Amino acid sequence: MKDSKSPPISEQTLSRETFLTRAGVVVGGAAAAGLLGPSRASAMINRGAVNRASRTLKLGATLPLTGFAAADGIESQRAQKLAIEQWNANGGVAGSKIRHIVLDLGTMEPAHHQSIVRQLIDKYKVDAVVTGYTYYAGVELDLFARSGIPYLNVNTNEDDATIVRKNTKKYWNVYQYDPTNKWYGLGFPRFVNEIVRGGVFKPASKKVAIIYASDNYDSTIATNCKSAMEKNGWTTSLFEKVTSPVNEWGPVLAKIKKDPPDIIFVASGVLGDQVAFAKQFTQDPTKSIIYGQYIPSLKEYRQQTGKASEGAIWSTMIGILTSTAKGRAFQRTFQKRWNVAASASTAGYIYDGVNLYLSAVKRAGTFTDHRKVIRALNQVHYQGVCGTYVFNPSDQCALNYPDQVSKPNGGIPHLYVQIQNGKDQIVGPTPFTTSKFKLPAYF
Predict the structure, then answer these.
(1) What does the alpha-carbon distance between residue 174 and residue 58 come to, in Å, rounded to a whole number?
(2) Which of 401, 216, 188, 413 is nearest to 289 (CA)?
(3) Residues 85, 158 share a domain
(4) Beta 415-420 vs 423-428: how paired, if at all?
């Protein structure tokens, strides 16, 4: 078990997205290996008596407390600890107090990931694992399927969802408690329609330029965006794949100038690439809205781009709803407990994940009957700081509003955020907005 006091964040610790500026990681690339044999799997499934005797709910997590993503890992550990402290202060759940067991995911190599999952299952005999994300899709799923314990993650990965979708009977206990990355692309036309209806943005040609990194994660987003925008009546003026690092955007910008689009959709998780693009584009801009996926949310993006970041759009499949009293209250509580501000996404979703699982345990009245807990998980519809968690039975991923469900409290809002005067303002979807969309100054 890790020390309950999180280590300080050093200059070497990076967020999930910032990592991609340092390394060329291909999301969703590695295949599962070294899986457990049948005899060990059976032993894990039948270890319920140990948990019942201990009367302590052991909640595990695999978080990157060291390495490139340690900033996210440390924030996640703090958010989980905060949620567990709150439950234990109120007597715990199902007659038991909760013990937090965190193992360091480090730099997320598949073999190491599988190793610490085995430790949580075999050595620590955890009752569930509620955790954040990993870059390598699917490598841990069979381990959890064979263990029979609930596994909740926010990998935001369509590849994981596909694995589960093909065999929900096998992966009955594996859940992504956020929507997958495909919705970044598929949901974009709805946002565009919203700001067009607002009357401020008036497309001159209904053309979109799509630029995307060569990894599978971003390629999925770009391909979905292209098909969705074209079905919505738009023309793709440019569909350009780039290989990082891209320091010189002149050739791409020349193509944009030749056939100016109304929107430039940049699907890339590389900070350096997007900073260079923003700086070079704003030197001689076309009247195009810039969408940078998630990268413009980073402090480093704003620090390095300066005024070139103004007006940029970014989005997240799961983020703190600062437009709600619950979201703002969580930010205050987190700040008070840890003397540091919560980020726009990580602290909120990991806090919600713990509360979601424990709410299911409370409803089930047990944490040792895992199938009963999973049934309760599908019924609880927990309302958290990031939205309402309702699962799609076909892939066991959280549904998103407004792309999959029409009611605001029927799913997790797919947030669109614009940088306005150096601050994040939610500009879609309604009713979660904190400001109206504004045209960038260069218009």
Answers:
(1) 18
(2) 188
(3) yes
(4) antiparallel
Give yes or no for a contact between 356 and 381, defined as CB atoms under 8 angstroms apart.
no
CATH of residue 216's domain is: 3.40.50.2300
Sign of CA dihedral 132, 137, 140, 142: positive
pLDDT in tens, 426-439: 999 999 999 999 99
Please state whether the predicted TM-score (pTM) of the whole model is above 0.90.
no
- Give the pLDDT confidence of 250-264 residue by residue, as tens digits: 999 999 999 999 999
Question: Is 391:397 a contact under the CB 8 Å cutoff?
Answer: yes
Q: pLDDT of 21-66, one tens digit each?
A: 334 333 333 333 333 443 333 334 334 433 443 479 999 999 999 9
Shared domain check, 391 and 335: yes
Angle at 392 between CA 391 and CA 398, to 5 degrees: 45
- Give the integer Cα–Cα distance in Å for 115 and 94: 30
Q: Which two tokens stand for residue 408?
A: 């605001």
> Are 178 and 154 contacting, i.e. CB atoms less than 8 angstroms apart?
yes
Q: Do both 118 and 190 map to the same domain?
A: no
Residue 123 lies in a domain: yes
Average pLDDT over residues 68-72: 86
Task: Tell whether 25 is covered by a domain.
Answer: yes
Cα gap 432→94, rounded to integer Å: 34
Determine the straight-line distance between the first and last CA of the chain, rounded to whole angstroms: 54
Which range marks the domain in which residue 87 is found? 18-180+323-398
Q: Are 257 and 286 in contact (CB under 8 A)?
A: yes
> What pLDDT, on the 0 to 100 scale, is given for residue 215?
86
Convert the pLDDT of each residue in 253-295 to its tens digit.
999 999 999 999 999 988 899 999 999 999 999 999 999 988 8
Nearest Cα neighbor of 236 from 213, 256, 217 is 256
Whether cis (ω within 30° of 0) applies to the bond prior to 251 is: no
Which two tokens mark 31? 């295949």
Amino acid identity of residue 166, one-letter, is K
